[in-house]
Amino acid sequence: MTTGRWEFWIDRGGTFTDVVGRRPDGRLVTGKLLSHHPERYRDAAVAGIRMMLGLGPDEPVPAERVSVVKMGTTVATNALLERTGEPTVLLITEGFRDALRIAYQNRPRIFDRHIVLPEALYDRVIEVPERIGAHGEPVRPLDPDRVRAALLRARADGLRSAAVVLLHGYRHADHERAVAELARRAGFTQVSCSHEVSPLMKLVPRGDTTVVDAYLSPILRRYVDEIAAQLPGIRLMFMQSNGGLRQAEHFRGKDAVLSGPAGGVVG
User: What is the Cα–Cα distance from 140 to 181, expressed in whole angstroms?
Assistant: First the structure.
């Protein structure tokens, strides 16, 4: 079955970008480009599409000739491995500032005397004076003035991304919503809340996934927006780490990597 238009499947890696196109007559064509070649093109994926459509390097891609573009990219994974994500502040219930660092104390090499912990993705921790019980009962009211002051200091120091992870926030999210609003008003451009990103009962995997989302979403968003701007009117989808596809406008950091069962992050 054909749609009368081209379809593209693209794997955008760190070194090479592979492009598979299906012509309107159903035949498959393939291409391979360097992922980084600024002297010739802005982005290899779009350059591959133009090449197969017979377009010049600066010609717009006509939407009426392409039905869909489906992409897999290592942009987020590379940023995670190279630690080049967005500087992030973690906001967590007071008394739990080291919870994600301690995690479950897994020791795959139990006889090692010197334990080297992986580098944390967040640059700063703000302990949020608040507490909601497991059944939603108020234990400690949120102190917005203290949170606001800490957020403004972090913003002044150049942090732009915030991960909000509060105790029992997966189920009782009022305080997380309030803290998120404070962060946005303080000028944070990326705010990830655990009850939206990963509404799981356990604090550590929920927190790790939320931090990853805050750390990687700005990087991923910039790349997705760049591609979408060069393919206006064309359906654009990105492959998630679970193998599924997500519309470009909804693709975010948590979709690009998996959070491991022990709070680690798996690319």
Answer: 19
Burial 73-102 (b: 16+ CB within 10 A, else e): bbbbbebbeeeebbbbbbbbbbebeebbee
Say how far apart CA 57 and CA 180 lie, in whole Å. Answer: 42
Pairing of the two strands 16-22 and 28-34? antiparallel
Report DSSP state, residue 62: P
Cα-atom radius of gyration of the chain, to the nearest Å? 22
Under-50 pLDDT residues of the chain: 259-267
pLDDT of residue 4: 84
Contact by Cβ (8 Å): 182, 91: no
**pTM given for the model:** 0.88
Tell the burial category of 110 from Cβ atoms under 10 Å away from its Cβ (0-12, 13-18, 19+).
exposed
Q: Cβ distance 150 to 115 under 8 Å?
A: no
In the chain the first and final C-alpha atoms are separated, in Å, by: 35
Beta strands in the chain (DSSP E): 6-12, 16-22, 28-34, 66-73, 88-93, 124-128, 131-132, 138-140, 161-165, 190-193, 235-239, 245-247, 258-259, 265-266
Q: What is the pLDDT of residues 208-263, one digit of tens each?
A: 999 999 999 999 999 999 999 999 999 999 999 888 999 999 998 988 875 433 23
Nearest to 171 by CA among 126, 132, 210: 132
Q: 16-22 and 138-140: which strand pairing?
A: unpaired
d(CA 170, CA 202): 9
Give the containing element (helix H, strand E) for 211: helix 203-230
Q: What is the DSSP letter of 133?
A: -
